[in-house]
Each structure stands twice: as structure tokens, then as C-alpha cells.
Design brief:
By secondary structure, the protein is an alpha+beta fold. The chain is 32% helix and 25% strand. The chain contains 18 helices and 25 strands. The strands form five sheets. A five-stranded antiparallel β-sheet has the order 2-1-5-4-3, sandwiched between helices. A five-stranded antiparallel β-sheet has the order 7-6-10-9-8, sandwiched between helices. The protein has a five-stranded antiparallel β-sheet with strand order 11-20-19-16-17, with helices on one face. Helix 5 runs antiparallel to helix 6, helix 6 packs antiparallel against helix 11 and helix 12 packs antiparallel against helix 13. The longest helix has 38 residues. 41% of the residues are buried. The N terminus is likely disordered.
């Protein structure tokens, strides 16, 4: 044969596989590597008698250069007779025309990435017009050679079924699973398609009623070529009449069955109209078709969809071929259902992720977030989350976390931690106190008896909590094992915050340390970036270099840039092309209140403090031109809060009034540590009556704790 040489396929494949098999492992035992300065070792896998080995050989190999032209081949076994692989000719000349685009794309992917493509069921053209079914694997050639090594295993029907099932079961993506099935079916025909129940495509539960109607959507179609107008291609729904027709046909006698339509006249007669012929028949040469249902083995059985195999005239389906088709589809139907279940899980996880993303920043802070799962069509969706939300007392919380693992277990833990963090922050707890509670929660979730899910552990999850006060224009931040946020002050370069490392959430008791609170000024125009490690981790860079690149990207954000657009630009600039983890970024631009919208007074804890506070607040509200009824309510609320502070607390009292976009916020701070509670307000009981007045005059009120005491706040609508 043209282009053959003395090298055996074993040598060519072993040489290429050498870069994928560790030294001293399987490669050595198989004899794939020769000792330096010596001859190749003897191979027990190859018969010492070349004649019998040649007769039984089903393995061939072809070397390609970077232009995908054949440089070397060994297809000398009789099974490859008629496959003309000439040196210097394009490899795609060996393929049916319809397979050329797909195989070319696979070859170039291996050239670019170096990752092998294994066990693709493929047809090769013989000189007499017949075809040979092979299992084709594409490997990057071993150094110092360049290009590719393509192994070809001639396949008997039994081997084809096994290889096809193996290839189909390698992905949890519905589209890829259906595509692999269609490519395997192509060994029995000229065109193959897979149409799935819409519920399977979307990951919903599959109806198991034998006579239930199915709605079909095309999931895969091979070969890859231009199709006639009106023909259903992947992603399109089959016409309703076609779905009903196929549903009734394959569910004859309440049992899913394969059907064969043997000629073109019968096809047109069964379909009953030109519209369905255009939608289902792949061209004028299609003359016979086999419809094989994908049936999930359950009680009762559930039909997942239909596989279609079309042939040209003169190639009728024989009983043995139909049995092989049915066996292949039966063997692989459960892979389709696994992909459906994964799609459902993926949809649920992604919906939870999207629900946790920030919606809006508010009047005193502007936020923008980006979340990109590692692999949008796989189980890569995991536990990365960001959130920002206004607190009832006018501050804003910024939270980012990275829960260990992927899938529903990680997503459920993520949702629980996110909601718990929000509740604790809204209740007035400081960032370090919030992390203490989350740390305890992660430890409890890891307990198999009381945990969220057996076999899943969230130990080592990380979280960073920041609270922005728009009045003082300061941020209080605590981190549990998370990467340091990036701060870009107005007019200055961005840099990571110098936070002290922490072992993360759920660490062993001996490793637990108090969570630090890092406080820093954030004047108007400051930009804070919270993120997860997927944004800065790159195999080609150290983590410090990745963080430095993020700091440079944040420094380049102009104060007048649209923040959502800037966040997307940062992610597109930094995110690795081949991500191994979710990418999450939250940008927060601090705005703060204008100085004229806030006022603060410090008063001694004396009996006249309430009267002084009323006078100061009344004067300010008059200057702000507040409506008389609103002014009266605010004055009364401040009077009650100051009176309670003098009576039950002590030390200096701080009164702060804030004019917000929706009303007025009153704050009274003291040095007491008792929590004000709303009692039953019984007759003749003066205790707690002031809080009932506050409760009726305000839209909301609450308490937050400080290092020196507490602050009672109350919101009054205008």
C-alpha cells in the first residue's frame, strides 16, 4: 500500500501514547518505550510469527502533519484493503464528504489543545465505494515529532456496539450524548438523527404513561452538511403532526417498538403531506428509514425519544441490522436519561446561582456582578456566589463565597450560607460575628447525622463579608480563607487589601482563630472588587500574579465607566480561556451620602438630653423643608429613643439623622448592651411603651451592635 513502512501500528500508537502514560507505568510494561541507546524491547503483545499476527490485526495508524496531510501510515492489514492512504494526501480524503467538517474540527482541536479525542465511531471510504467502520482516536504526536497520530481499529458489529456505548457514556450533556448516539448510528445508514421528548431536553420528569403524547425536539443530526429548506435540524421542534405520528407509530399495542418504512413511496404515503415530508425526509435520495424508540427501562417504560436512520435506495434494512440498531439504542437509552437528570440538576443549580446575584446597588453604592460557570453544559456549576443588598439601617452588605464542590450539594450549601449571612447581617451582626455563625453552620453540615447530604462535605469553604457605611464612608470587612479583595481609591492604583489569612469555614477546633475585622476608609468614587479564585487562577501564572493582573484591570476602570460593562470587560480580560472553576466578580463603587444629607450630635446622658435632641432635630428638619406631619413623627421618634437610652443605658449618646431617597433614618447610639424588646404593652405598664410609639410611627426599626455598645435605628417615610 502506498505510504506504508516497516514501522508497525503498535510502534506508532505506543510512541504517541508515551506522552500520556507516566514513565515506569503502563507504557513500560507494554514495551512502548525503548531504553536509551538500545533496541526496542520485545513485546509479548505481538505474535512472534508475523503471518498470523497480520491476518488477525485490526489496528492501523496514520501520522499527519500540521496541515492534516498524511506523512506516514500503516494500514497493511487485510481488513483495511481498499482504504487508499497515500503519503502527502489529505487525511480527509479517506472520509465520506459529509463527515469532513466534523472530523476536521476534531483534528484541529487536538492540534491546538494537545488533548486526545478517543474512540470516535467513524466510517472510512474504500476505493470500490464501500465503507469501513472503525473506532478512531486522535492523539498529539510524541516529541520530537509534530502533528497527529490517528489510530484506526476496524470494528466488527459486536465491537462497534461496545465502542459506541462507551463513547456515548462519556458525557453528561444532552446534546453531546445525542450527537454521539447519532454518530454511532451512522454505521447503519447515510443519515442519522435523534429526536428527544421536550421534557428530556429540558431536564424535566419524563411521563411514564405508555400512551402519553410526546413533543419531540431534534437533538442531533449527522452528517454535518447543508440540509434542504424546511428540514428539521438540531434545536428545532418537530411539527406537531410529526410528533404525534411518531408517538403513535412507536407505541403500537401500548409497547414501544421499532418500525421500518422500506421505500420512498411508503414514506410519503405514511407521512401524508409535503409539509411533513420536507420536515422529516433528508433529501430526495432518502428511500428507507428505521425509527427506533429510546426507551427507559422502568415500570412502566418511559419513551425518551426516537432515533432515525435513513438510507439511500438499494440498501434495505435486514433483520440482523435492525436487531443491532435496537440493541445499540437500548444500551444507550440510560445514558440519555442520565444526561436528562444532569440537565435538571444543572438548571436548578444555575437558577439558584442567578437568584443570588445582586439586583441593584441603591442610592449610596453602585454594584455590578458577573457569574460564569466553569462549564455551562456540565456538572461544573458549583458553589461560587456573590450578593449585595441594602441593610435596613441604610448600610450595604457585600458578600462573596466559594463553597467546596459542584452540583446540587454545593449549590444547596451555597444557598443556605447565603441566606443565613443575609439574615444575620440584617439583624445587625458585624461581619466577624456573621462568619462565626457560618463557621459553625459548615461544621454542622459536615456531620453525617445532621448534615445536608451524606457524602458531601463543605469543609474548607471560603467567604468574605463587607459592610459599607455611607455616612462614615468606611467599610468593615472580615474574611474566612478567601482571597483578598481589591480596593481602588479615587485617583490611586488598585491593590489587594492586607487582610490576615484564615483557614476557612469549618476548620478543626485546634485551627480556629478569631475572625479579624479589617476597617478602611472608602471615599466617594472608591471601587471595591470581590471575586472567587476562578477569576485569577491560571495554570500559567502564580496566584499572586493573577491577583496583580486583577488589580491592574480594576485600576483601569474609569470613574465614569458603566459599571456592568466594566465588570464584563474585567472578566473577559482575565478569565482563563479553559476554565476549571466558576468565575465570579462583584464590583462596588462607593458613593456615600452628601454631607448636607446627614447630621450627627453627641449628647451627655442627662435628663435634658431628649429635649436637646428634639430641638436640634426640629431645626434641621425645618432647614430640610420636611413636611410638618413627617417632622412631628421624626421628632417624637427621636425623643422616645433618646429617653430610652438615658433611662436604660448610659455614657454619651449619639444622635444621627440621615435624609435618604425614600424617607428619613434616625439613629440613637449608646453604651448599653441590652437589647430593646417590644413588650405586650399592658395597661398601667410604662416599661416598653416608648418602643410601641416608635413601632407605630416608623416603617421599620431595629438594633445593630458596635464595639462600644449598640445603635437603635428607625426609618420614617416622608
Amino acid at each position: 500500500m502506498s505510504g506504508s513502512s516497516s514501522s508497525s501500528p503498535f510502534d506508532m500508537i505506543s510512541s504517541a501514547l508515551g506522552k500520556y502514560i507516566p514513565r515506569g507505568g503502563a507504557a513500560t510494561s507494554a514495551g512502548s518505550a525503548a531504553p536509551q541507546g538500545g533496541d526496542p524491547p520485545a513485546r509479548s503483545l505481538v505474535s512472534a510469527d508475523p503471518a498470523p499476527a497480520r491476518q488477525e490485526q485490526i489496528l492501523g495508524a496514520v501520522n499527519l502533519d500540521r496541515d492534516l496531510r498524511i506523512t506516514h501510515c500503516n494500514l497493511g492489514a487485510p481488513v483495511f484493503a481498499g482504504v487508499e492512504a497515500a503519503t502527502g494526501s489529505p487525511f480527509v480524503d479517506l472520509l465520506p464528504p459529509g463527515d469532513v467538517p466534523t472530523v476536521t474540527r476534531r483534528l484541529r482541536q487536538v492540534l491546538e489543545t494537545g488533548e486526545p479525542h478517543v474512540a470516535r465511531v467513524q466510517r472510512l471510504r474504500r476505493a470500490d465505494g464501500s465503507e469501513l467502520v472503525v473506532s478512531m482516536s486522535i492523539l498529539a504526536a510524541a516529541a520530537p515529532q509534530e502533528g497527529l497520530t490517528v489510530s484506526l481499529i476496524a470494528m466488527a458489529k459486536r465491537l462497534h456496539l461496545y465502542a459506541a456505548e462507551t463513547a456515548i457514556g462519556t458525557s453528561l450533556d444532552i446534546g453531546e450524548t445525542a450527537q454521539s448516539l447519532a454518530e454511532s448510528l451512522l454505521a447503519w445508514g447515510d443519515v442519522a438523527a435523534v429526536d428527544l421528548d421536550f421534557a428530556v431536553w429540558t431536564g424535566e420528569a419524563v411521563a411514564r404513561q405508555p400512551q402519553g403524547r410526546i413533543r419531540l425536539r431534534r437533538a442531533a443530526l449527522v452528517p454535518d452538511r447543508a440540509w434542504p429548506d424546511g428540514y428539521v435540524t438540531p434545536g428545532d421542534d418537530l411539527p406537531g403532526d410529526a410528533s404525534r405520528l411518531l408517538s403513535h407509530a412507536i407505541r403500537r399495542d401500548d409497547a414501544a417498538q421499532a418500525i421500518v418504512i422500506p421505500d420512498r413511496d411508503a414514506i410519503e404515503r405514511v407521512l401524508g403531506g409535503p409539509r411533513l415530508v420536507r420536515a422529516l425526509v433528508p433529501g430526495d435520495q432518502a428511500a428507507a428509514v428505521a425509527f427506533v424508540p429510546l426507551v427507559l427501562d422502568s415500570t412502566p417504560p418511559a419513551v425518551l425519544g426516537v432515533a432515525e436512520v435513513w438510507r439511500r435506495a438499494g440498501r434495505p434494512f435486514h433483520d440482523g441490522e435492525l436487531l443491532d440498531l435496537q440493541e445499540l439504542v437500548a444500551r444507550t437509552s440510560h445514558h440519555v436519561d442520565l444526561a436528562r437528570q444532569h440537565q435538571r440538576e444543572h438548571t436548578q443549580v444555575l437558577a439558584l446561582q442567578r437568584r443570588l446575584l445582586p439586583r441593584t446597588g441603591g442610592d449610596t453604592i453602585e454594584t455590578a456582578s458577573v457569574y460564569q460557570p466553569a462549564t455551562p453544559d456540565s456538572a461544573g456549576v458549583g458553589g461560587d456566589w456573590v450578593n449585595s443588598f441594602p441593610l435596613p439601617d441604610g448600610r450595604t452588605a457585600l458578600v462573596v463565597g466559594d463553597v467546596v464542590g459542584h452540583g446540587l450539594g454545593a449549590a444547596a450549601t451555597m444557598g443556605q450560607l447565603s441566606m443565613e449571612a443575609r439574615a444575620l447581617l440584617s439583624a445587625g451582626l458585624a461581619p466577624d460575628e456573621v462568619l462565626e455563625h457560618l463557621d459553625e453552620t459548615v461544621s454542622l453540615l459536615d456531620d453525617a447525622d445532621s448534615g445536608l447530604a451524606a457524602g458531601y462535605s463543605a469543609l474548607g469553604s471560603t467567604c468574605c463579608v463587607a459592610v459599607y457605611d455611607p455616612v462614615s464612608r468606611h467599610v468593615a470587612l472580615s474574611s474566612a480563607g478567601h482571597l483578598p479583595p481589591i480596593l481602588a481609591p479615587p485617583g490611586g492604583p488598585a491593590a489587594p487589601l492586607p487582610i490576615r489569612p484564615h483557614p476557612g469555614l469549618g476548620a478543626e477546633f485546634a485551627l480556629r482563630e478569631p475572625f479579624d475585622v479589617h476597617a478602611f476608609a472608602a471615599p466617594p468614587g472608591s471601587l471595591l472588587a470581590l471575586y472567587t479564585d476562578g477569576l485569577v487562577e491560571d495554570p500559567a501564572l502564580s496566584i499572586d500574579e493573577g491577583i496583580a493582573r486583577l488589580a491592574d484591570a480594576v485600576s483601569a476602570v474609569d470613574p465614569w465607566d458603566d459599571l456592568p460593562q466594566a465588570a464584563r470587560h474585567v472578566v473577559s480580560t482575565l478569565a482563563p480561556a479553559r476554565r476549571r472553576d466558576d468565575v465570579t466578580l462583584l464590583l462596588a463603587r462607593m458613593l456615600g451620602y452628601r454631607k448636607g444629607d446627614t447630621a450627627t450630635w453627641r449628647l451627655p446622658a442627662r435628663d435634658d438630653a431628649a429635649a436637646r435632641a428634639r430641638a436640634l432635630v426640629s431645626t434641621l428638619l425645618a432647614r430640610w423643608r420636611t413636611r410638618p406631619d413627617t417632622r412631628d413623627r421624626v421628632v417624637l421618634v427621636v425623643d422616645e429613643l433618646v429617653a430610652n437610652a438615658v433611662r436604660f443605658a448610659g455614657g454619651p449618646i449619639t444622635v444621627r439623622l440621615i435624609r435618604t431617597g425614600h424617607g428619613l433614618l434616625c439613629e440613637v447610639g449608646d453604651t448599653g448592651n441590652g437589647r430593646p424588646r417590644l413588650g405586650r404593652n399592658e395597661p398601667f405598664d410604662d416599661a416598653g411603651r416608648g418602643l410601641h410609639v416608635v413601632h407605630r410611627l416608623t416603617t421599620r426599626w431595629g438594633v445593630r451592635w458596635t464595639d462600644t455598645g449598640k445603635v437603635v435605628w428607625a426609618a420614617v417615610a416622608r
